[in-house]
Design a protein that fits this description.
Length: about 170
């Protein structure tokens, strides 16, 4: 339903962030679950979700220690252009497999994602705004809280007032 155009997307387009092509772009998104696969246990049709650009396997040493953003299988899938399962659900008009962008591929009418790439949200949250939580908010807030560990009353400098910078503030 909602998809943001992030600097990471633009970096793939201009080649400064090389990825395997062809690829269905877009990684900052929100949507509504329309169908759940047989093995999906956490989501049902109609759930509102935000996509995470790092699928979290829940089993690797990083996931177990609470550092899911560093999930090793998730990072491998993202680099390979696949879902966490290794699949590539998109094809082009010539039936050539297309790569996933960070397990999301939101620049399409419909997408397929691993349940490990989804976070259920309250249905009252506007989906167009919720899309920002999948990258900009998570990155900006994560930098302040988890990386810099800024304490109340400390002074910091933030360069850039895009989605990430505003979220850091």
């Amino acid at each position: 339903v909602g998809a943001g155009l992030c600097h990471s997307d633009l970096s793939v387009v201009d080649g400064s962030r090389p990825r395997q092509m062809p690829m269905v772009m877009g990684h900052e998104a929100s949507g509504i679950v329309r169908e759940a696969g047989a093995e999906v246990t956490d989501f049902v049709e109609g759930d509102h979700v935000v996509f995470s650009f790092v699928p979290v396997c829940g089993c690797c040493s990083y996931c177990i220690s609470g550092r899911g953003a560093l999930c090793e299988p998730g990072a491998r899938a993202n680099i390979a252009g696949t879902l966490l399962s290794g699949s590539r659900p998109f094809t082009d008009s010539k039936s050539t497999a297309c790569n996933q962008h960070l397990g999301v591929s939101a620049f399409s009418q419909f997408t397929v994602a691993s349940q490990e790439s989804l976070i259920k949200i309250d249905k009252s949250i506007p989906l167009a705004r919720a899309a920002l939580f999948g990258c900009a908010v998570m990155t900006g807030v994560g930098a302040v809280v988890n990386t810099a560990r800024v304490a109340p009353g400390q002074s910091v400098a933030i360069f850039g007032m895009g989605g990430v910078g505003l979220s850091a503030i």
